[in-house]
Amino acid sequence: MKFNSDFIFGTATASYQIEGAVVEDGRTPSIWDTFSHTPGRVYEGHTGDKACDSYHLWEKDLDLLADLGVGAYRFSIAMPRVIPAEDGLVNARGLDYYERIVDGLLARDIKPVVTLYHWDLPQYLEDKGGWLNRDTAYRLADYTHAVAERLGSRVRTYTTLNEPWCSAYLGYGDVVHAPGLGLGPGCFSAVHHLNLAHGLMAQAVRDVVGRDSEVSVTLNLQMNRGDADAVRRQDIIANRVWLDPMLRGYYPEELFAATKGICDWSFIHDGDLRDIHQSLDVLGINYYSSGLLALSGRPQFPQDMGATCAPGCSDIESLPTSGPHTAMGWNIDPRGLYNLLMRLTSDYPEMPLMVTENGEACDDELVWEDGHAHVHDDERCEYVRAHLEAVHQAISDGADVRGYFLWSLLDNFEWAYGYSKYFGIVHMNYETMERTPKDSFEMYKRIIATREV
Q1: Binding residues
Q2: Which residue among 17, 224, 440, 453 is buried most deeply as judged by most CB within 10 Å?
Q3: Residue from 19, 126, 214, 357 carrying the catalytic annotation
Q4: Cα–Cα distances in angstroms (integers) from residue 355 to residues 147, 303, 388, 396, in the given order
């Protein structure tokens, strides 16, 4: 299977997961600093204080990207580095760091793809209510304006939000992501304010760089099977709650019916949907696995919320899926990615697509052979091959898929799992900070060079 010459192969990371240096050059705490330093929140008390130390070792990482041969690199910017205090003043040292990355990528002929918000909300905004506070959306727009003014059209694509589903449902609805409030249906105001922030951030990019850079958003859309009513309702609350306002300018009426009695949606103001509905150049899709749903007849949220649950779906149960499974316990289902791409092609045919995250956590082991370190991650290699085949099949069947970003370049801080899960195609020694490319790195390198699976 051969990909066209304009198909983009890339890889991705996120700021809090790799940067470290959490108190350097004016950076202030994010909600993930607070969350990870709260006992019992993260596996064995791990934090992102040092992570992969990419703040200091960024040139090593860019050299790895050059060796890999990617056409683009998706990374995120930490707002606490750029706007470190409530006064809104821009920290030039924070932007200096990201400008070095952008220029370093361009010097290596790699297109920068910037995610503006990948979950590390400044703690000072959380102290004012975070995503429950409407003002947060406007503060994110101001921050976006500052970033776009500095980096300009050197950035190929500005992505407003990464996986707002996780921010709202796992961070405010449940307790497993920062800030971990466990509000259940009380998180729907966060849903709306994230949507509003997306629209305002997209406008800010357009105001500064016009059409010289692409604007996108990245969603982790749920792909489920099982009971038809369960799948339909989950689709409304997990998928269409983002897709319809962003791409169509309205919330689906079924959303209000599904949440009747638990949310009155009075936080929607006149003009909000007009602001949310902005022209996008590409829709980013993060996909790892699919789900199996049933109607349970008993509440599921928030105490035992499954990976696909959300408020308004309290009688929907996430069932065990057939194997094989990754080290995260997620099923491996490349057909689910194909089905998702085709569904989006059918429902939103005008929207080009990009797979912005896809990868597998494996129980990797570093071994020494002939005096050299190796990681033989055959399972990850097969996962990537199978999902690239699904992407190729979707393109053959009419989906406008522009690229694929493998998650992740490096083993890193995997949120509440700390450093216990390994998604990278480069092994990290967290004591020495030594980076060792795995077999999957070499396989992906060959795919990029030949454009063939």
Answers
A1: 17, 118, 162, 288, 407, 414-415
A2: 440
A3: 357
A4: 24, 31, 10, 16
